[in-house]
Amino acid sequence: MTGWDVVQPVLTLGLSVSSLVVAAIALGETSRNGVAQRRHNELSVTPLLHTWIDDCADNRRVTFMIQNNGIGPAVITRIEFFAKGDMNGRRYSVSELPFLLDDVIERFFDRASLTPTHLAERYALPAGSELVLLKIDTKNQLPASEAGRISAELQQKVSCYLEYETIYGGVVTGVDP
Known about the structure:
The protein is 37% helix and 32% strand. It is built from 4 helices and 8 strands. The longest helix is centred in the first third of the chain and has 42 residues, at 3-44. The radius of gyration is 29 Å and the shape is rod-shaped.
């Protein structure tokens, strides 16, 4: 028996074990990269919702809307309004919003009329789109600048709570002033 006959099985075994170790490491890295890629895909199509108040003196209208500034669609599951700074107080749905406005904005219905949007229980908002929740028309006998005053009061006194889902099923909540 030569020295090579003794060394050859040890080398073969060593190469076999090192091949298994390298294969296990490659499998682990592939798995880790797959998880990272999935997380990247989820983040790259995340919707980003914001409320927006637009006032136009020309048509005497204030529009309260939600904009999706993200890349993916949002499935809106809950929209609630509350008096700014009173998150634990009463919450109002879109259809109950007139009651909140009457409570927090002085003489609101003497100055304006409103048209709320009626939404389904769940509403899908595509990326780059907006949803008008409320149209407020100021009274004709008041100056056209009244729309700007009502808009400023809305921004100072009303907050919006949003809850929506991403296409991957993640739930996002937030308060947008």
